[in-house]
């Protein structure tokens, strides 16, 4: 798997191994890497806050603190006023050299933040822990983080916001809430999922002039932004697949409407809907391009199934007799399908082998049911959860949430860097199901359909939010930007 460094995601242990390799095999001194990190971070600080002239450094005893001290030395040389609050008077190795360089440049160290708390700073630099903390900050460090977060001053985090788990994206309490983070050597996978969006701010990667690693391969990869290539001029509706959306039990016709219209908007040539008879009139009136079929019993479904090339099952399906009958019919047919919502809950309650070329799209609660655990366990390590889901159900899995993850049964993982809190609203998952089903119908593999579908869905949500704000965003607001993004230059 060849992934550009801009999209490659590594565990913290893998990045530390790259550091060691640079020092031991390429002969780059650790202090030189620290100097490069300080230059990179100071460059971001000056670009992002060009009027800043007063800095407060929060310095831990390790190399993350050393990065901060060297940034402070650069700032002093540029005419800034700089104070440094230090967690400990002890330091060793490169961190000690960095502290001495700061003092030689005229830097002033305060023993505690309290000595600086009445002063006004333009930017606070977080150099407390980076990736070097495996538990919640305690004692003075916890107090400093809480004070910095409440100060009203922007925080620049070095490598990783202190308190954020670099592997899982889980924010321990307390955790730095940075306005920007400069991460070094390689992207850490935890900076793109779970709580990371609330803690990292704007992310900047600096490779510190190191060559790209040849091994090991990255643990995961970021999705890339693209659409689909133009269609052949000599094509027809049958060339682009026939999606059958199954769902919409009593009172949930809107869910299957959103799913089926999303399949149309994402380019499926034909979209049929198998739903309760009560919903047919509304579907025909609102979206006549859909072929709506009343299905009240499993026998009604057989002729419709024969015409379909892909199934989208789950939105509004329910878990009663009607929903179970449609779900069983889907399990019995050998068609690619996207499984969502109550279809996932039925699968969790009664595990069964899935047809080939399936994509599952659980949110954390559904994922917990599928793995017989709880939501907190899923969120504690989303990478482990999505890999276990894909392996257990032998399907591609898209684990939804902040920083959605897509996994194959073999363990390949992609992470979505787009999306916004406005998308935490009813109907968004139904739209995603329809998008992925349409992409399957147009010939994409389950992996490619899930990756492109998740990316398009999140990017469409960002475009819609940019037009009117996040609060009040509707799932149907994604349809227009979705169409535009899908038809954009695929490169």
TrEMBL record:
InterPro entries: Carbohydrate_kinase_pred_CS, CARKD, Nnr, Ribokinase-like, YjeF_N_dom, YjeF_N_dom_sf
Amino-acid positions noted as binding (6S)-NADPHX in the UniProt annotation, renumbered to this chain: 63-67, 130-136, 159, 255, 316, 363, 430
Reactions it catalyzes: (6S)-NADHX + ADP = AMP + phosphate + NADH + H(+); (6R)-NADPHX = (6S)-NADPHX; (6S)-NADPHX + ADP = AMP + phosphate + NADPH + H(+); (6R)-NADHX = (6S)-NADHX
PROSITE patterns xrefs: YJEF_C_2, YJEF_C_3, YJEF_N
Record-listed K(+) binding positions: 64, 126, 162
Keyword NADP: yes
Keywords recorded for this protein, A-Z: ATP-binding, Isomerase, Kinase, Lyase, Metal-binding, Multifunctional enzyme, NAD, NADP, Nucleotide-binding, Potassium, Transferase
Domain YjeF C-terminal: 220-489
EC code(s) of this entry: 4.2.1.136, 5.1.99.6
Needed cofactors: Mg(2+); K(+)
Residues noted as binding AMP in the record, renumbered to the chain: 400-404, 429
Family, similarity comment: In the C-terminal section; belongs to the NnrD/CARKD family.
Function of the protein: Catalyzes the epimerization of the S- and R-forms of NAD(P)HX, a damaged form of NAD(P)H that is a result of enzymatic or heat-dependent hydration. This is a prerequisite for the S-specific NAD(P)H-hydrate dehydratase to allow the repair of both epimers of NAD(P)HX.
Protein name in UniProt: Bifunctional NAD(P)H-hydrate repair enzyme
